[in-house]
Every structure is written in C-alpha cells, then in structure tokens.
Task: inverse folding
C-alpha cells in the first residue's frame, strides 16, 4: 500500500454504530471513493452458489472495515436514490420522485460541497438516467447530477450488440485514467451497471461459465433473458421455475463478475494514491428475483428491492465490525462531508423516528416507513391520493414480508402524510421543483391515461434512447 500521509483516528463507538472519525496529525483530508453497484442485492454479500462464494473481494474488504448489515436506499430506482445520496435529502424533498424530475439548484450536491473544500471531483458512470448531457429528455442541461464534478463521464453501451451499458472493465479503465497524482484530495464516484437487468454484460464475463457449465453460448442466454423480460412486464405469473432459476443464475454470475472488478479497482487505486483513502461501497437499490411475484425493481418496495450492501473501509476504521442497526444511504451525504471537512463524522443511523423509502409509479405513490424496532408499513396510493392498500410487517419476525398485518387508521394516516411533510420542508427551504423536457412530462401523463405517446413526434435521438430504456426494462 502507498505510504500513509494522513491518519484517521479518534474513532468512537456509540450503540454499536461507527460514531465518528477525526483526522489527526493530518496535512490534508483523505481521498474518498464512492462505489455504487446498480441493482446489487444486500443478501448477495458473502453468499455462495454451487459451493463458490459470489463476493470474495467484497468479503475481504468487509473484513477490513465496517459493514452495515441493514442498509436501505431511499427508493428502488437509480435517479431517485442517487439524488438522495448526492444531496442528503429524500425524494419528496428534492422533487426527484420519478423520472420526470431532476436535481433542484437549491440542493448543494456532494460534489459541489467537496469541490469547495479543495477536492478534485470525478464521476464515472454508465447509467443513462443520471447522465448530465442527455438528462431524461436526452438533451443538454445546464445542471443535474454532474453538478460540482470537474470530470463527469458517461460510458455508453452498445445497444445493437446486446450490451446496454458499458461493462465494469471499461468503467474501471476510465476511472483509473481519470485519477491523477493526488497533490489535491480526490473524490471519485464510480457507478457500475453489470448487476442490472438484463444481466447481459460484456463478453469477458461469460468466459467463466461458472453457473452455466459452459453449455449455453452467450447469445442464447441473452435471448433467454430478453424473453423473461417480456414475461416480467406482461405476464410475470407465466415465468416457470426453470426460467426463474436461469435468471437467478444470470444475476449471480453478474455478481461474481462485478465483485472481481470492484476488487481490481480498489487494488489499483490503492497503488495509485499516496494519500489515505476511504472506500464506501454500496448500491443504489436492490433487485427482485421472483419474490412476491416481482422481477427487477422500480415498482415495489419489498426488502429485496430496497436493502443494499454498505461497506466502509479506511485507515483507522475498526476491522471486521458489523452493524445491525438499520441505516439509510441518505446519511452518506453528511457523513462524507464531515469526513472531508476534518470533523467527527456523524453516525450512520436511522432517522430519529423512522426510515423512509418512497417512489412513484404510473399507478401512484409507494411509501415504506420502518421504525427502529423493525415495524414496517408499506402504503400504496393512487395518483389522486386514494389509499389503495396498507400492510404492516414486523421485520424482525417476518423478514421476507410474507404475512401482512392490518395497519391502524392512525398509522395509515401518519405514513400517508410523509411525502407531504417532506414537500413542506422543501418549500420552507425554498427548494424548487426542476422538471425535465416537455416530452417526458407528456409521456408520463399519457402513460397514466393509457394512451401511448405518438412516436412520430420524437427525434431520432429520442427514439434511440427510448429503445435503450426499454432494453433496460424501464419502459414497455
């Protein structure tokens, strides 16, 4: 490892949580690397298939630092969840509650804050939803997720070759090339897509043939998974057991492949950097693989879709510590900012009263609230605000959310009011809603009415990107 020029010290523990970091005897703040693995399930960390561990590299990193075993995203959709990580605010506060909104200028992003502290800020990703140059309407925007980054690089995949995003090897190469000698501290954000459906990553992944026994050529697997996607959208109940097993194998091979690439990234960065470096490894959301009759994400708030891995590794951090308390990735914002400012980083802990997860679909709002004791309520509302269903699950006794319990009316009312409470806070703080292009407003409205948008009104670029989004399972 490169020579240590800073020291992370004065680590205290409160209630089993990592409560603080102080930079002691340090000429400058540490490098900070935030790694986001798209659609990576929390239960895959340390899991095995056919006697082979899926995440040997992540497990090794976990042994070096702190693992939060019950970490949650704020929404099971990249744009919403990433907005929360970048601003430290929930979706209803930022206004990024669905794909027709983008970051408001009143919310200082993580990159903006760290840039003010003298950091060189780098973002390397391959997810079209957070691309600054082609944001949602796929036209240039003056501000968005790229705000504050000295370098923001979106790596496109090859749609014609069944590669809908750039693979982790290409992402790693771009990230390493972006990093310079660390005369100044570096904040590096890396976002991988290899564990995102349709699990058809770049060719090097398939050379392992780990879970297919080398029997099926890659293209056959690509086509099989494309067929599963069609069933997923149109008739998920028609997906047979063998198809379910095949898709789970595809997902697990993607996990194995990505684990290796994350390990290589960390290894190369440690050799490249002279300055102490803190690595934060997490996911924007999880992934459903048939649980509750659902596949993918971005539609329901089941545990498999909203729990994420969270590993923090750095000099001075207690090795091998595992924290069971439920925490939210929305807290990473203030934790990273405090670390960059040389202060004691606050505990990654739940909200004082509740952990909030929310999203909006074409059918209406979804809200999930989890109290510190593990009592969870999932509420579904129509677009006009009518409560369609409310279910309660004691997660300590029913972690798979298989036995719904009734919810008292007062609790329903309390959970239903959460989005409005967040909106009022935003209004109090002068936060404006930032919308994307007119086309996406209109497409969202017409999808609700059941009328398909007239594609003849689209530019060729919009048509291309619409196909790209369909290939990723976002549109149908």
Result:
């Amino acid at each position: 490892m490169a020579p240590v020029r800073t020291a992370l010290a004065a680590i205290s523990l409160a209630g089993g949580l990592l409560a603080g970091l102080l930079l002691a005897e340090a000429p400058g703040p540490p490098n900070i690397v935030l790694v986001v693995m798209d659609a990576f399930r929390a239960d895959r960390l340390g899991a095995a298939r056919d006697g082979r561990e899926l995440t040997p590299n992540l497990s090794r990193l976990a042994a070096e630092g702190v693992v939060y075993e019950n970490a949650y995203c704020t929404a099971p959709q990249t744009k919403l969840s990433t907005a929360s990580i970048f601003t430290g605010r929930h979706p209803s506060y930022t206004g990024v509650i669905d794909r027709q909104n983008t970051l408001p200028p009143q919310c200082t992003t993580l990159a903006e804050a760290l840039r003010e502290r003298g950091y060189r800020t780098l973002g390397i990703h391959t997810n079209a939803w957070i691309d600054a140059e082609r944001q949602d309407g796929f036209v240039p925007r003056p501000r968005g997720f790229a705000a504050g980054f000295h370098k923001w690089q979106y790596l496109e995949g090859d749609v014609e070759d069944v590669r809908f995003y750039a693979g982790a090897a290409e992402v790693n190469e771009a990230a390493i090339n972006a990093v310079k000698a660390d005369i100044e501290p570096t904040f590096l954000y890396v976002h991988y897509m290899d564990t995102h459906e349709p699990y058809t990553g770049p060719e090097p992944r398939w050379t392992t043939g780990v879970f297919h026994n080398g029997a099926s050529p890659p293209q056959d697997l690509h086509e099989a998974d494309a067929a599963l996607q069609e069933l997923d959208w149109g008739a998920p109940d028609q997906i047979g057991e063998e198809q379910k097993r095949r898709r789970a194998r595809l997902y697990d091979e993607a996990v194995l492949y990505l684990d290796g690439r994350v390990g290589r990234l960390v290894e190369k960065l440690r050799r490249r950097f002279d300055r102490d470096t803190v690595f934060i490894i997490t996911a924007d959301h999880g992934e459903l693989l048939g649980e509750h009759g659902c596949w993918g994400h971005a539609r329901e708030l089941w545990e498999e879709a909203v729990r994420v891995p969270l590993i923090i590794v750095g000099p001075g951090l207690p090795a091998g510590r595992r924290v069971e308390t439920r925490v939210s990735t929305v807290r990473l914002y203030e934790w990273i900012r405090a670390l960059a400012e040389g202060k004691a980083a606050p505990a990654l802990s739940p909200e004082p009263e509740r952990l909030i997860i929310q999203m909006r679909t074409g059918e209406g709002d979804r809200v999930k609230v989890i109290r510190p004791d593990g009592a969870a309520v999932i509420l579904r509302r129509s677009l006009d605000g009518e409560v369609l269903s409310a279910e309660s699950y004691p997660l300590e006794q029913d972690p798979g959310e298989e036995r719904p319990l009734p919810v008292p009316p007062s609790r329903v009312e309390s959970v239903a009011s959460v989005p409005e409470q967040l909106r009022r806070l935003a209004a109090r703080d002068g936060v404006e809603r930032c919308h994307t292009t007119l086309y996406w407003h209109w497409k969202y409205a017409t999808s609700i009415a059941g009328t398909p948008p007239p594609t003849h009104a689209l530019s060729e670029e919009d048509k291309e990107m619409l196909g790209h989004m369909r290939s990723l399972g976002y549109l149908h």
User: Anything to note?
Assistant: Residues 112 and 148 are 4 Å apart (CA to CA). The mean pLDDT is 78. The domain at 7-352 is CATH 3.40.720.10 (Alkaline Phosphatase, subunit A).
